[in-house]
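User: Structure tokens for this complex, please. No commentary.
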Amino acid sequence: MELNEKIRKFIESNLVVFEDEAEFSDSDNIFEMGFVNSLFAMKLVNYIEQEFGITVDNDDLEISNFSSVDRIISYIEKKKK
Amino acid sequence: MSEEIKEIKCVIWDLDCTVWDGTLAESDEVKLKPGIAEVIRILDSRGILHSISSKNDFDEAIQKLKEFGLDDYFLYPEINWNAKSVGVDNIRKNINIGMDAIMFVDDQPFEREEVKTAHPEITCIDALDYLAIPDLPRCNPRFITQDSKRRRSMYQDDIKRKQEEDTFQGTPEAFLSSLSMKFVIHEAKEEDLKRAEELTVRTNQLNATGRTYDYDELNHFRLSDKHKLLVCELTDKYGSYGKIGLALIEIKEDHWHLRLLLMSCRVMSRSVGSVLMSYIMFEARKAGKKLLADFKITKKNRQMLISYKFANFKEISSDEDGNILFEHDLAYIQPFPPYIDMVIP
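Assistant:
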């Protein structure tokens, strides 16, 4: 599976609204669109650490690293190098 | 209170030769150990939870506990043939507390060793010593509050909520709406202070600083016009979660300084963690003040750090001990979730 599909799938499984009501592109800010709730941030960070075997440092815990599918991918790729 | 002497929040019991004399699989004629029911009831009345990790047939063991009138005391019993360390871990996850707040009681050195090796932070007790458990300092909380007396029934309500959530057809938001949650924030009154102290001692995960405050300190803040001490309570259609949140704000000339923010881990899954934070931001903005906030990184409060960062708190300074000073510009504040009825001063 492509990286972006994988991440979309994770986000979709954690939406607070029905999937067909929530259309978002890879560049949309999922936090500002109100599709996810506050608990989601923690789940997302845990997911990225476990699924991709990286450690998210406290300094990296900025919403800008995780606010869209594209940003999550570039963060993972930066950490994987 | 230092980390080494954390209060015990849950006692996990073996059954055969621990709660009762004899082995259930060999004979149905097992007898309760003398005084054990009293030990269980005393601890329960202090707000200490009970569970079971036992190698037995689940239905037979529960049936036996029913006969003894004790089945209602045990949350998330792990009665199966797995390693006990696995059962203990499942209980810890279900109750959502630290391993250092759990006591494991078993008559067999092998089982205690197996559990201790897997979970070094747990406290293991030889079943021979069961009568002394209520006298241990770690089993004697400084205060017994309304919330501690009702703790078991609050967890039992949570189990009902969870069962309903698992079978609910619809989105998580629709489920949260169906709960009819009400979130009440008010300035602390004198009768809230024991519970407030208890919250500072017991709350580890959703706690911004891990600082503990005693009754007198909290009473001082309550009466001071340079401080605001806020308490929150959450209720839903099943009943009250009790007093689950606390915040201390120091009011300065040009800013509000958030000294303490904590929320009980029991409400974590309800997504209400950011509600108190948003309320404080709205109020600071209304008062025309900036908002600063103390934070201290501990071994357990990463979720709180994520909450602050994702709420757009910016770091102003930090030191090597994990102390952070945050500032929030109050430009964007996360609105209250639509599924919660807010009752605010």
